[in-house]
Write a structure and sequence with these properties.
Blueprint: H1 2-11, H2 13-20, H3 23-55, E1 63-83, E2 93-110, H4 114-121, H5 126-133, H6 139-146, E3 147-150, E4 153-154, H7 171-185, E5 189-196, E6 199-206, H8 214-223, E7 231-235, E8 246-250, H9 253-261, H10 268-272, H11 290-293, E9 300-302, E10 309-315, E11 318-323, H12 327-344, E12 354-357
Helix pairs in contact: 3-9, 6-7, 7-8
């Protein structure tokens, strides 16, 4: 018996040790990407699911993956395979085998409580708008999501809540957004701070060379400000009577999500059964919300799982998805994900709702 153990130590264990030394790096190389992809994909699915819920006036809910613990387990065995000379009249056959098992434990934390609700309902800050703008996002996309009024021009403010039954006011705002975007592409405007009294002041800065442009004159005319100026402060105080300022009203994160939920195309059967609110003109004709949100986001629906989808989720026996080829919608959805992270990222998690030892 002692001789057998001695032979195991000499012939078998070195092979096991050499093999085990390569398991860790190999597992990290493969599994880290798998975990990353799974979390990213399910985050997108959860965000899309909540947009669809809002369209149906169902309650949104968020679960955060707060931790993923991966435990590697190695089991080794000796078996026939290595033939040694006769010892005491017996032939001893030895071999080595090793099995590697990954046992992850995933912890989910619900995003809820007073602080999270406050962040959902608190209007987006102008500093957040500035951050997104200088991160390279289109001014049209940012303003469409975050602003519901600019100098009295309405961006479907009723869409910041459950789908209204009346047709929204949005056309003039769309014209305003298009002008902002044209000037941004021509490097004729910027969103920036300037020194003003005790604290810096955020506003729209125009390139001096563009002050006589047709688009700039149209922009200042829509905004109702004096043309020819290089700087117009952005002010949240809607009651301010100061001249030549741009008074804005920003949506909350929940308001942004409600606004984008209007882009969900609901199956005809659900519409006929009254499961959603149908917005109508005074004549009774249904209003098409794609006139408001169609240029930035389209969420399609169907009875079958889509083959070419950037993100898809099944809800109420139907599939809702964003086409993988719809780059505009994918960009808007990505911007929403960033807004959500900015608004809720500082919220500390509460007690875990569920811990799953998946490998057991």
């Amino acid at each position: 018996m002692r001789l057998t153990l001695f032979i195991l130590l000499i012939y078998v264990f070195p092979f096991l040790a050499a093999g085990c030394g390569t398991f860790g790096p190999s597992v990290i190389k493969g599994e880290r990407i798998n975990y990353n992809s799974a979390i990213q994909r399910t985050n997108d699915e959860q965000l899309l699911l909540n947009l669809v819920r809002l369209k149906y006036r169902d309650t949104p809910f968020f679960l955060e993956v707060s931790s993923v613990l991966s435990q590697l387990s190695i089991s080794a065995s000796a078996e026939a395979g290595l033939t040694l000379p006769k010892i005491g009249g017996n032939v001893l056959g030895l071999g080595s085998g090793a099995t590697l098992a990954d046992k992850p434990t995933v912890t989910y934390t619900p995003l809820q409580g007073e602080k999270f609700v406050q962040h959902l309902l608190t209007p987006v800050k102008l500093d957040t708008v500035l951050l997104l703008y200088h991160s390279g996002w289109s001014i049209k996309r940012i303003f469409a999501l975050c602003f519901q009024r600019i100098n009295g021009i309405k961006n479907a403010p009723g869409a910041s809540g459950p789908t209204p039954d009346y047709v929204p006011d949005y056309k003039e705002f769309t014209q305003l957004l298009n002008l902002f975007r044209k000037l941004q592409l021509k490097n004729a405007l910027d969103i920036a701070y300037r020194a003003s009294g005790a604290s810096p002041e955020l506003g729209i800065r125009l390139n001096p060379e563009s002050l006589d442009w047709k688009e700039v004159r149209e922009l200042t005319g829509l905004l109702g400000v004096t043309p020819g100026k290089k700087y117009y402060p952005l002010v949240i105080n809607l009651t301010s009577e100061e001249p030549d300022i741009i008074k804005v009203e920003l949506r909350s994160l929940l308001g942004v999500m409600f606004y984008l939920s209007q882009s969900v195309e609901v199956p005809a059967g659900d519409r006929e059964q009254g499961k959603i609110t149908i917005t109508r003109y005074s004549s009774g004709e249904p209003f098409d919300w794609s006139q408001v949100t169609g240029e930035i986001l389209r969420i399609h629906s169907g009875s079958q799982s889509p083959e070419q989808a950037a993100v898809a989720v099944k809800y109420r026996n139907s599939w809702f998805y964003i086409k993988d080829s719809d780059l505009t919608s994918k960009s808007t959805f990505s911007l929403l994900a960033q807004l959500f992270a900015l608004q809720s990222g500082k919220i500390k998690g509460y007690a875990p709702a569920l811990t799953l030892p998946i490998g057991q």
